[in-house]
Amino acid sequence: MERLIGKAYGKDVMLIVACIFLIWGTLLFILFKIYQLSMALNIFCAVAVTCVLCLIFLSSALLGVLSHLKKNRVNLYTQQFSLHDPLVENVKGL
User: Fold this and answer.
1) Tell me: the pLDDT tens digits for 24-61?
2) Spatial distance between the Cα atoms of 1 and 90, rounded to a whole number of angstroms
3) What gap in Å lies between CA 49 and CA 54, rounded to an integer?
4) What residue ranges do the domains of the chain occupy?
5) How far apart are the C-alpha atoms of 94 and 51, rounded to whole Å?
6) Cα gap 33→85, rounded to integer Å
7) DSSP 3-state percent helix, strand, coil across the chain (nearest 5)
8) pLDDT at res. 18
9) C-beta of residue 51 within 8 angstroms of C-beta of residue 32
C-alpha cells in the first residue's frame, strides 16, 4: 500500500511542478511578446505587473496544493484507492 501511495504522490508532485513550469513559461512568453509589440512603456508596465501578480498567486496556490498533499498523503490516497478497489478497504492500519 505504501508503494502505491508513494507512486501516486510522485505522479501528483510531477504534475504540479509541470503546471508551475507551464504557467511561468506561458506568462513569461506573453510578457516577452507584449514587450516587443507595445508602443508605450506604461502598457508594458501594466501587463508586467499583471503577469507578476498572476505568477505569485498561481504559484502559491499550486504550492499550497502540494503542501496539502504532503501533509495528508496517507489519508487522501488511502481514500482514493479504497474508492476504486474494494480489497483495499480491508487495510485499516494506515
Assistant:
1) 999 999 988 988 888 888 988 998 999 999 999 999 99
2) 11
3) 9
4) 2-85
5) 43
6) 49
7) 90, 0, 10
8) 96
9) no
State the Cα–Cα distance between residues 12 and 85, nearest whole angstrom.
20
Residues in the chain: 94
> What cell was used for 26?
506561458
CA-to-CA separations, 57 to 53, 62, 66, in angstroms, rounded: 6, 9, 14
* Residue labelled with grid coordinates 498572476: 54
Would you call 60 helix, strand, or coil by DSSP? helix
- What amino acid occupies position 6? G
C-alpha–C-alpha distance, residues 16 and 61, integer Å: 10
Residue 25 corresponds to which cell in the numbers above?
A: 513559461
Report the amino acid identity of residue 60. Answer: S
Kindly list the distances between the CA atom of residue 93 and the CA atoms of 1, 34, 71, 87, 88, in Å, as whole numbers in the listed order.
11, 55, 18, 14, 11
CA 48 to chain CA mean position, Å: 22
Per-residue pLDDT, 2: 80
Provide the 8-state DSSP code for 40. S
Q: What is the mean pLDDT of residues 51-74?
A: 92
